[in-house]
Amino acid sequence: MANIRPAGLSDEDTDEDDYGYDPLSGTLNNEDEMKNARKNTERNLQVAIQNGNIEEVAKIVNLDLHNEVNERLESGWTPLLHACFYAQEEIVQFLLDIDADPNITSIDFTTCVILVCTNTIANEATVYNIVSNLIERECLLNIGNKYGVTPLMKAILAGRPSVVRLMIDNGANIEMRDSLGWTAVFWAIHHNQAECLEILLSKGARLNIVDVSNRTPQLLADSHNNNEIRQILSRYSKNSEEDRDEIDNMEINNDTNNLTNWHDYYPGLRDENRPKYCYEINHLLYGMNCDHLKKIFDKKPIDLRKFLLLEDEDMVELGIDMPYERQRIKQGLHKFHMYGWKVGSVAGLQTERGSTYSMIKCVNILGNHLQQLYILEATLTYLLRGYGRIQNKIKYEPPDSPALRKLENAVKNMTSNINSIRKEINIMKKIHTRISKDSLKPVDLITEKTSSEMAVEIFTKLVVISSVSFLLYRAKGLITNMFYK
């Protein structure tokens, strides 16, 4: 078992430590006496748990802790954390029965279930029973320690296939990542746990992912040279590619079925409403390595602007429950908004003066500009929102502060860029106004009239005909009367 001890405890029996001793008075002060008493209580509890002495544990909890079973000891650990660390099934059961909290963590955010899975000495049946008991008491499985390591990853490290299956069946997220960007699949490959890897992949774990060092599961497996792991990856990679191709074909067919005319590629061209660019969201999710969340946005569709301005509460409302997934989207959106613009992305007809402009070319450029302006407006809103959050911080900065100078330069550059875009828009507007006056409406934009439009047209014609007939009748009467007179 890993040599882990709670902070502040030692296995040494030496008496040479004079911690807490007051050399002036030659006695221990009250504070140090209390601290040493707490240390002794924790040490006695640790020994009792390690020996499986449930009667002694009950005695310490009753007399020394005054039945405060969730009280943190000198190290910051509770009795249940100790019991889980040593995988003492009966003592864990006893502590849970007297309302020990299964979700309490140590100072480094290590949970009870993580400690159980860390134990490599106890047999698998014991670990399985303890984890099952903790799950029944609603312990959290989708939580990591300060390094992002989850209970599932620890169970894989210890080579506990039955525990891995138990956790997944009870809602453990197989795609959570640690600080290295590793999912449970990476852990299984790195620690040569073929059976655990098989379970993960059979439950739908993804292989088309990379860690923070841009390594794929296949690349990691190649570096370990484990033939069994390679064979499993090869088998599931082939199945995954076939399934992915089938899904892609279905998505392409669905997208194609929604495109009936060429102007469907240009949102707002027909009805002149504000475009939504919803189809771009899937591309951004893929780039953020969050394409598995596509189903959520399919069920609750939003436009691109709202996606680019998503906040934590918005994502929770959509159904993105995992904090790490929300954080990944927020980081991806921040990178998107901070990405530099290139001149070619907003260049228009101004760069091709003297050339002949076709209608299709004008529409293409205009559609591109419309989308870029749409995104730029969202980015400006994002920046203004961020500026509003730091106003209270920067208002106390001195006038010559480097942060203020940097902010002023950024504002000047942004203002200059906005003015350049405004100039390009005015030029494009003049060109398209001239083209619109000189050109007839494209045939493809002349659509069949709806029944309501036809009804209005017929009613209008009837009113006009009736009015003209009435006027003619009245005119005939007037003319006849004039002749008789």
TrEMBL record:
Pfam families linked to this entry: Ank_2
Disordered: region residues: 1-31
PROSITE patterns according to UniProt: ANK_REP_REGION, ANK_REPEAT
Domain of life (superkingdom): Eukaryota
Name this polypeptide is given: Ankyrin repeat, SAM and basic leucine zipper domain-containing protein 1
ANK repeat segments: 75-107, 147-179, 180-212
Gene Ontology annotations for the cellular component aspect, listed alphabetically: pi-body
Presence of the UniProt keyword Nuclease in the record: no
Keyword Transit peptide among UniProt keywords: no
UniProt xrefs under InterPro entries: Ankyrin_rpt, Ankyrin_rpt-contain_sf, SAM/pointed_sf
SMART domains: ANK
UniProt entry keywords in alphabetical sequence: ANK repeat
Gene3D superfamilies according to UniProt: Ankyrin repeat-containing domain (1.25.40.20), Transcription Factor, Ets-1 (1.10.150.50)
Feature: compositional bias, Acidic residues: 10-20
